[in-house]
Write a structure and sequence with these properties.
Blueprint: H1 3-26, H2 29-56
Helix pairs in contact: 1-2
């Protein structure tokens, strides 16, 4: 996993989780859904990079 892509994945996961929690806290469904989507995008990026790493070995 490249350091840059790994950092992007972690940032998306953390930002998404924060938005999701904030949305739930204030009752903002749009923010909750947006956060969930961003977190899942980070999860997908991380999975993609892990697959690339497995292919290299």
């Amino acid at each position: 996993m490249t350091a840059n892509e790994k950092a992007k994945a972690k940032t998306e996961q953390a930002t998404g989780a924060a938005k999701e929690i904030a949305g739930r806290t204030v009752g903002n469904e749009r923010l909750t859904v947006e956060g969930r989507a961003e977190r899942k995008k980070g999860d997908a990026r991380e999975a993609k990079e892990k697959i690339k790493d497995v292919g290299k070995h």
